Task: structure prediction
Amino acid sequence: MKLLWAVSALLLSCWRANASTAPTIVAEPLEVSNQSSAVLSCNLTQSSLHIKGSHWMHNGKIIEESKSTDASPYTVLQLEKITHSSSGKYDCVFLTDPVVQQTIDVKTLPHVAAYKHSEHGNEKDKGVMVCVSHGYPLPTDWAWFKEQNGTQIPIVNGTGNKYEIKSTPDKTTLTVNDLSIENDIGDYICSGTNELGTSSDKIHLRVRSRLAALWPFIGIVAEVIILVTIILIYEKRRKPDEVNDGTYAMLPTQLHYQLLGCVQTDKHCVIKCCLLIYCLLLLCLV
Result:
């Protein structure tokens, strides 16, 4: 029994000795919230471990400029400008055996940005708008609004099968079904909120008529008809003395007819020649 008590006392004293010499990192500050700049520091105390160097990590990646081979138990990292891209988790790492480290959180407002600031869709079709977020921490809540007369009207997911919202911490998507030129054209706002506040961005939605794609084709057909009409009127009213007798240079149209193997009096051939020439001109313009 006495032997058991002696062993227990020995184990307890060893545990206390290890606890008293366990490495401790004092970080300052433990958290940075919505600041434009900061100085991060770590101090390794109560440790008998041999220090071979130190460095800092940002979101799991080593910051090369922070690498040091000094045996100093103190390290500092200066953040001159804090943005959404420089926010995240910073770890000060001391190269001991075993390695010891401490984490400092650098937090900012969510950075919300539209994937495209202008979207378009066809009438009766779907319109899809996307917003993404960067930084730390990511939004815990997303919301969509539609601007009407200077007022932001909240959009509720699943409203009458009109709107569909899908969100993840770093992305939100709004789908507008059965697009209408009268009701759906306008500005839409996506808003992301984290523990520090809210940020938003704007997207303009355009709705095109289903016949919009036909207008260029109709315009080209109209131009061809006008061109053919002008040529036919010219051929009909041409004076007899304008007929080439071999002593004068041929008109450009006559030259085209001969090059294409057409007879001037063949109206169908003339029309085909004109259409071909016009199509070649359109190709050149394109």
Observations:
- The longest helix spans residues 214-237.
